[in-house]
Amino acid sequence: MDWQSLIVVSSVISFGTLENLFPFFSFKESFDKRVYTNLVLGLINVLANNFTIALLLNCIWQQTFWLGIFHFIHSPVLKIVFSFLLLDGYMYAWHRLMHTLPIAWRFHKVHHTELLMNTSTAYRFHPVEAILANLPKLFIIWLFGITLQNLLLYEIFLACELIFHHSNWAIPLKIDRYLSYLIVTPNYHRSHHSQARKEATSNYASFFTIWDILFNSYNYPRNPKAIKLGLPQEKKELSIINLLKLPF
Ligand SMILES: [Zn+2]
Ligand SMILES: [Zn+2]
What is the reported pLDDT for 177? Predict the structure, then answer.
């Protein structure tokens, strides 16, 4: 196993253990029932991306026609910082678009059908969204000349953060709240998974919450325990086939 996968697997095990030891919501459903659907979707998405996006990325990094805007910046530290912020800002814009465009929402709502939010929810995306989300990102990578190393660095941090903020781990309220001024925390993201429209149409950030603060979508929940997860029209857990068919 390479070191990148090792970090992601370690965070799944760590946050998975913490959410089972100190759960925020007490779900009656067994652990395997809560994670099965999401892990199958995650596997489909990894395979789908490996056959499409990974090949396109290779083409970008092998061409020498355009080396990217960052080619003119000489400091490696600045390149890392700008790459991180650019990719994270893009994630915010993409997520907000998913909630704004009706056609995009049809695919993104698969993520919001989760009733038993846990670490595996980080992988609950429709494959069409999982692939399409990477296409504008490819353009940004090409335009700015983001390197493989800097992309990997962001993706690993993002993967760990997604696992952390989807976890059902009850971290102390004050810590969660203060931390949410910097990064997305479990309560902060639980609010985005709420059935209440005002809560679900805020907190779009994936890693840094600065984007929500800047674009007026920061909304820390007043009473996180009262959040009702999921969509009002989907009361029952859907099968994998039904989740794949949901947008159509
Ligand atoms: Zn969303
Ligand atoms: Zn989510």
Answer: 96
Ligand approaching nearest to the C-alpha of 190: 2
Mean pLDDT of 130-143: 94
Q: Which ligand is nearest to the CA of 99?
A: 1
Q: Convert the pLDDT of each residue in 146-205 to its tens digit.
A: 999 999 999 999 999 999 999 999 999 999 999 999 999 999 999 999 999 999 999 999
What's the gap in Å between 172 CA and the centre of ligand 1? 24
Alpha carbon 51 to its chain centroid, in Å, reads 21
Label residue 132 left, alpha or beta by phi (over 0 means left) and psi (-120 to 50 means alpha).
alpha
**pTM for this structure?**
0.93
2 CA → ligand 1 middle, Å: 30
Domain assignments of the chain as residue spans, ordered by start: 3-245
Terminal alpha carbon distance of the chain? 38
